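Help!! Second protein's tokens look totally different from the first
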Amino acid sequence: MSGEPLLIAQISDLHIKPRGELAYGLIDTAAALERCVTHLNKLDPPPAMVVCSGDLVDGGAPEEYEHLKHLLAPLKLPLLVIPGNHDDRAALRRAFPHQPYVTENGAANLSARVDDVDLILLDSSVPGEPHGFLEEPTLSWLASELDADPARPALVFLHHPPFRTGITHMDRQNLHNADALAAIIARHRRVQLVAAGHVHRAVVTSFAGVVATICPPPNHAVELAFGEEAPPAYKVEPPAFHLHAWFAGEEFGSLVTHHVPIGAFGDPHAFFATNGELL
């Protein structure tokens, strides 16, 4: 591989409603996704893959997935998707029949080899519940997948964060068996990233000795409010997504995550004049 990084874009929490409906009567999530797709298509160089880490739709209804597919149709990049707590596994599978899920039923887990990196996507959704949980077959599959090729770096994606953020009402809905995931991640040094969604905010921390992130949304943000008594609320803040850049190098290389605002912000402005002087 050359000195150029391998780029993996991550989007999350699209919350697409039936055509013409607004989330909470206010947020046009369809327009937000259209702007996100336009921005992704303009990235140069283009990412090798786009990962959507759950909550593709808002209520799991077939008409929502049909609307979602229409909105994603202009995307020029390959796409991998896993469900979140707002999704319906069966409806998601029907909407994306060519996704390489490991099994035909149950948790919609998948993996993909992208150049020199393995992408491992875990289905942490619990049907009918807002919190996350990795089923025993998922944990066993993850362990065997990581054991299969220990020399390749791996990026792990799931919907529910396996750590606290301090936003109490969201932390109640995080991954409830995070310790089981941590035990597997800690045994496999090739894992370079654990990337989640769900919280509608950009977050970075460490988990089981690995860098861990939460992807920001293309639409509405959860209010950054700490404390047990803070009520659930959302705000309209600048939308964004994450762009994970992996650089080849010794052992497992290195990974950098960029926060990419969605929108048009004009052309780049030069720092230096044509004569080399700083402007």
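Here's the second one for comparison:
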Amino acid sequence: MTLLWLESSLPMVRIDRNHPASLQRQIYDLIREAILGGALAPGTRIPSTRSLAAELGIARITASNAFDQLIAEGYLETRKGDGTYVGRTLPDDLLALPEDPRLGTRVRPPQLPSHRGQALERLWDQGVYQKAGLRPFQMDAPALDAFPFELWGRLESRHLDRSAAMNLAYCDPAGHPPLREAIAAHLRAHRAMACDPGQIIITHGSRQALNLAAQVLLDPGDAAWIEDPVCPDARTAFTCAGAHLVPVPVDEQGLDVAQGEALAPGARLAYVTPSHQFPLGVTLSLSRRLELLDWAFRAQAWIVEDDFDGEFRYAGKPLASLHGLDRQARVIYLGTFSRALFPGLRLGYMVVPQDLAKAFRSARALADRGSSLVPQMALTDFFNEGHFQRHLRRMRIVYGERRNVLVEAIRQSLGHLLSVRVPDSGLDLVADLEAGSGDVALVRQLARGGIKLIALSSLYQRTPSRSGLVFGFAGFPERSLRAGIGRMVELLGEPG
């Protein structure tokens, strides 16, 4: 290390030839810190680069480059024929911290985002993603242990091998046309939906689809019906769009349309999960579906049908979609492959009315210019070669068995505390707590022991009518489900 004083105006300079930072960077940092720390006052004359280089035994170009950077940033200034000086107006002066009169110290004022940014911060669930592994009974976790990843890898490799540069470039923001054709054919055959590829927009999962729907369909202040209780993602999307949320009760027949009309007859939008209401698991009855469509036509409102679990029905075939009953083009249908295949795929889709297709394509393009092409091409082959339908059939069996194991384990070990009904569809279920039990405190207690559940009451916007626990079962083998219930018994100190 070289240590020396440089003339009377420059404090001690320390350079270390073994330091990972370059000599130029060390000189820059030392002079800058001396200026910001007050050791070199504004207007102080600085020794020349020639003398600095000679004193330190370095090349003059090294010192000159450090000075040039300090001059460019405003810390130093040159005066023609008179040398180099500390700048009289320093850039960091604009960032000077105010004095705290009580302490005599400088304090940094709080830094706040916009009101929208603060709303996003409040709404985001920091616990959605886990750093390592799944915790029972985490939601949004399909059976990754049963997915044909070897087959999927071959499909992706097929298009990477053929790709040249073409398949790695941007594609149509609305999505890969052959994939949209395959999805349209699937929906026509299995969800009773009359749609064509031009109505389909490929998204990064259902969350982006919700955000696009909120952007395109709502203006700030518009009323939007949401189910009560409701999926947090929907609540977040419509809140961040500035909508006035109108919680509409859900009963055994699904969304209570009459209540919605009484609360906000002129609402701009209604959000529903008709095939498998989250979190209660009920199905929207046919009479309610027709009531909802009639209201939307009369009010010239939109219906957002979120069908994230529609493929997984264990009693009979999947139900016909609400979209399939729509004759007035009022329904926007959302689907995702995150649960049907795997979350990391980050592919979902929307089916939008023809009149709105251009607006949604534009919104999708402005959001992020579209999804990666190779996964879309692999998914197209997954559809066209029959793998998608085979996978769904296999997973309905797997998930049905896992559902039954979880229900049995809850009834055997926690039946005195929880009441559970066997759901006909979906990848989650609700277990009601005995009257007077607090689900939020219970969820927190279990979380400390490694069990991840959702408190049913936390999903209500108005006063909760039920207290319970929401279990995800799809992502866990049967032994893990039993072990998870066993762990709950230990944590609760209950007899098993």
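Reply: Different proteins will give different token patterns, so don't panic. The first helix runs from residue 23 to 36.
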